[in-house]
């Protein structure tokens, strides 16, 4: 029997802890995102749970897709369908972002209601550096947090920002020492959980009204563009350059 992709580690003070379990980088896959959606949907049916902390085992929260060639194949359409399910759940969740949230890992972090990180945490929508289009609904979630102009800059450059800048941009909600990320996420989640649960869920539904539909539409377009650009020489060069830790030499081909 293989280890689970995601584990539900119990409920305390009406807060459930869900952990990604593909260390050290927690590269995403359909199996992991689907398992996460399953866990959140299960918690929706559990009246003891009022809020969720999403955390990760290993050095990085989620380093996005694995381009090393060792990843198990999966359908991007299936992956994005599973990603959309994250936006359809009813209970708020707080992401404890240790290490890096890169590419689709950033998209995963932005699916949460709140994000806690440290100054050493790293965030990047690095898709352009790989030579293709962003995905995981960042078309919707990134401008929603940082505004259209800053979102454009982050998507056009793919530059990496640390936790301090991410806080200034509005990407994350609190900055704490690395050792305190998970406990700070739990403290925020417990504060939310102490509020009237029906009221919290009602307010959340109002604030996030239509987001799942927008993400579904966005990922359909994102997937089409990713498919088109993955056939280019620039994508081959970008992924090769990233794996070799060197600047890419793009040729517009």
Report on the architecture of this protein.
The protein is α/β, with parallel strands linked by helices and 253 residues long. The radius of gyration is 17 Å and the shape is globular. The mean pLDDT is 95. The protein has eleven helices and nine strands. The chain has one domain: 2-enoyl-CoA Hydratase, Chain A, domain 1, CATH 3.90.226.10. α2 links the parallel β3 and β4. 47% of the residues lie in helices and 15% in strands. The strands form two sheets. Strands 1-2-3-4-6-9 form a six-stranded mixed β-sheet, with helices on both faces. A three-stranded mixed β-sheet has the order 5-7-8.
Condensed summary:
With 253 residues, this protein is an alpha/beta fold. It has helices at 30-44, 76-86, 104-110, 127-130, 138-146, 148-157, 163-169, 181-193, 197-207, 211-230, 233-243, and strands at residues 6-12, 15-20, 51-56, 93-97, 100-102, 114-117, 122-124, 161-162, 174-175.
**Residues in helices, as a percent range:** 40-55%
How far apart are the termini?
A: 44 Å
- Which CATH class is shown? Alpha Beta
Query: What is the count of distinct domains?
Result: 1
Q: How large is the radius of gyration?
A: 17 Å
Q: What is the 3D shape?
A: globular
Quaternary structure annotation: single chain
Query: How much of the sequence is in beta strands?
Result: 15-25%
Give the SSE map.
Blueprint: E1 6-12, E2 15-20, H1 30-44, E3 51-56, H2 76-86, E4 93-97, E5 100-102, H3 104-110, E6 114-117, E7 122-124, H4 127-130, H5 138-146, H6 148-157, E8 161-162, H7 163-169, E9 174-175, H8 181-193, H9 197-207, H10 211-230, H11 233-243
Parallel strand pairs: 2-3, 3-4, 4-6, 5-7, 6-9
Antiparallel strand pairs: 1-2, 7-8
């Amino acid at each position: 029997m293989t280890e689970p992709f995601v584990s539900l580690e119990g409920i305390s003070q009406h807060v459930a802890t869900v952990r990604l379990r593909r260390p050290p980088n927690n590269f995403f896959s359909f199996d992991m995102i689907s398992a996460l959606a399953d866990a959140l949907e299960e918690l929706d049916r559990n009246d003891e749970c009022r809020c969720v902390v999403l955390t990760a085992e290993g050095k990085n929260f989620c380093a996005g897709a694995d381009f090393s060639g060792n990843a198990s194949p999966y359908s991007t359409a299936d992956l994005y369908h599973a990603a959309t399910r994250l936006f359809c759940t009813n209970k708020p969740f707080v992401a404890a972002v240790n290490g890096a949230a890169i590419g689709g890992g950033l998209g995963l972090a932005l699916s949460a209601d709140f994000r806690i990180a440290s100054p050493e945490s790293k965030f990047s929508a690095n898709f352009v550096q790989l030579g293709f289009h962003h995905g995981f609904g960042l078309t919707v979630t990134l401008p929603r947090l940082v505004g259209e102009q800053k979102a454009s800059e982050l998507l056009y450059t793919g530059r990496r920002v640390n936790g301090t800048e991410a806080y200034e941009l509005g990407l994350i909600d609190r900055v704490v020492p690395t050792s305190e990320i998970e406990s700070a996420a739990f403290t925020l989640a417990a504060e939310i959980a102490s509020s009237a649960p029906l009221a919290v869920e009602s307010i959340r539904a109002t604030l996030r009204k239509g987001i799942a539909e927008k993400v579904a539409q966005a990922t359909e377009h994102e997937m089409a563009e990713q498919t088109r650009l993955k056939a280019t020489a620039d994508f081959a060069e970008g992924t090769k350059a990233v794996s070799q830790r060197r600047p890419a030499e793009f040729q517009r081909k």
